[in-house]
Write a structure and sequence with these properties.
The chain is α+β, with helices and mostly antiparallel strands and 490 residues long. It is built from 17 helices and 21 strands.
Length: 490
């Protein structure tokens, strides 16, 4: 669970302060952020891990109520630290992973498990949607593909072959909406979260009639789309967090869009985040988006969109390697990984433990390693895997640059990269573009907080403030990049 959290300099000199919450794919984190977008936290953010139930059949699900409870306990930890330091909060901002789906009963509680973005059991349902609908037209309207990652396909799968077995629920939403319902007694969603469902018309900012019909639901089964802040905490939470009772709580936003904002990855600066998964994204001022071919397109808010390509198997592969292979201790592993030449292992790897994101085919969730000999060791396998994952990120960058032109630089961050300088170098060489490491440990939390600061009038432009940041710059090695380009062509 959450450990102690302390705050650094006197926050009265750094206000207004935002409490930011990030409900990620593997953990829930909270942090106080000042008006410059800098954390008040001395050390790590308040954090608690959570896990998914997975199976060979493609399941990725968890107990939604337990995850909401975990979010509340993380807020508890952050509030206690803010209270001890005398923080006067101005607003609460939240980021949540996209594409989650949970049925909510008439009692306001979860009626189904929470299905995660990596749940592949809707694959046949997505194929059925592609056979029935004009996917190109759907993509232009919604920014999403007909793919099992999206709630649209999951609803068809849950309804069964005859379309009449949808679990009884009064509404369908994600974990962020369920959490706000618990706290405020009101169910609604943000434009950002709605844009990641495959059910929203991006231009109109309203639920898409054709996709609702295809998914077998009516508009009454989905939350209203409204970016206005929540106010009026339920009495039990007023008693628990009196300092948060009168401040605006902004509806949850998509974590990827917040990460791009928090890193300053806008315009000609392309963002790369590497956590459990990885994604290459560009944030644009785009009130009426034209959806690029081959990329998904979601909203941050009514003014801005984020477009890109995701790679499901990012840091999850590194964690699997650590857990499964007899790898050296971290420092020794880093030294040995860094000393190896690109491709010298002679292995070919398909690094797929989770279903791939659209527009790529999602499954099957099986990885492969070819070329192993008696001389192959654990470190060679690890290096080959990390290179293969980096090459996938390079393919994603290719797709983004095909739509928007060559990036001036790639701004990169995320826990998986932070944990391995050797892998960071591999990724930079695979991308073949100057890569700047974001100086921010929690770009998603920062992005959510910056947008809240903009909305309360504390800063004029969240993107402009974020883009002013520096960070270590890594130039790609052209020889290594040539090796990875050959791998990419295979």
């Amino acid at each position: 669970m959450c450990g102690p959290m302390t705050l650094s300099v006197p926050p009265a000199r750094r206000g207004p302060c935002i409490l930011a919450l990030d409900v990620g794919s593997s953990s829930v984190r909270a942090q106080w952020v000042d008006a410059a977008g800098a954390p008040l936290t001395a050390g790590a953010a308040a954090r608690a891990e959570h896990a998914w139930r997975v199976s060979d059949g493609g399941a990725m699900e968890t107990d939604a109520e337990a995850l909401a409870d975990l979010c509340i306990r993380v807020i508890d930890t952050a509030v206690e630290a803010g209270r001890a330091a005398g923080v006067r909060p101005a607003a609460v901002a939240t980021a949540v992973f996209w594409h989650g789906l949970v049925g909510i009963g008439a009692d306001g509680r979860a009626a189904t498990p929470l299905y995660g973005w990596g749940d592949g059991r809707a694959r046949a349902a997505a194929e059925g949607l592609r056979a029935r609908l004009d996917e190109a037209a759907v993509h232009r309207r919604t920014g999403c593909f007909l793919h099992e990652v999206y709630p649209a396909a999951k609803l068809v799968w849950l309804a069964g072959p005859a379309g009449d077995s949808l679990p009884p629920a009064s509404a369908w939403a994600g974990i962020g909406e369920l959490l706000m319902l618990r706290l405020f007694g009101t169910l609604r969603t943000s434009l950002s979260m709605a844009s990641g469902t495959g059910l929203l018309d991006l231009r109109r900012g309203a639920w898409d009639g054709e996709m609702l019909h295809a998914a077998g639901i009516t508009v009454d089964a989905l939350p209203p789309v409204d970016d206005a802040p929540f106010r009026g905490l339920r009495a039990e939470f007023v008693a628990r967090w009196p300092e948060l009772a009168e401040v605006p709580w902004f509806p949850p936003l998509g974590d990827g869009a917040c990460a791009s904002l928090g890193m300053g990855a806008a315009g000609r600066r392309v963002g790369l985040t590497v956590g459990t998964s990885a994604a290459v994204r560009v944030l644009r001022d785009d009130a009426e988006p034209a959806v690029p071919d081959g990329l998904w397109c979601y909203r941050l808010d009514a003014r801005r969109t984020v477009c890109g390509r995701a790679v499901s198997n990012g840091g999850v592969g590194f964690e699997w390697l650590r857990r499964t292979l007899l790898l050296p201790a971290p420092d020794a592993l880093e030294a040995r990984l860094a000393a190896m030449r690109p491709g010298a292992h002679g292995l070919s790897v398909i690094p797929r433990l989770l279903p791939e994101r659209p527009p790529r085919d999602g499954g099957p969730e099986t990885a492969s390693i070819a070329g192993i000999t008696a001389a192959t060791g654990a470190v060679e396998i690890a290096r080959a895997w990390l290179e293969a994952a980096a090459v996938e990120m390079g393919r994603a960058l290719d797709a983004v640059e095909a739509a928007f032109g060559a990036a001036d630089e790639v701004v990169a961050g995320g826990g998986a990269l932070n944990a391995s300088p050797a892998w960071t170098r591999i990724v930079a060489d695979a991308l073949g573009r100057p890569m700047r490491l974001t100086p921010h440990d929690e770009p998603t939390l920062r992005g959510a907080a910056l947008l809240a600061l903009e909305r309360i009038g504390a800063i004029p432009d969240a993107v402009a403030l974020a883009a002013a940041d520096g960070g270590e710059r890594i130039a790609p090695d052209p020889v290594a990049h040539a090796v990875y380009r050959r791998m990419r062509s295979r």
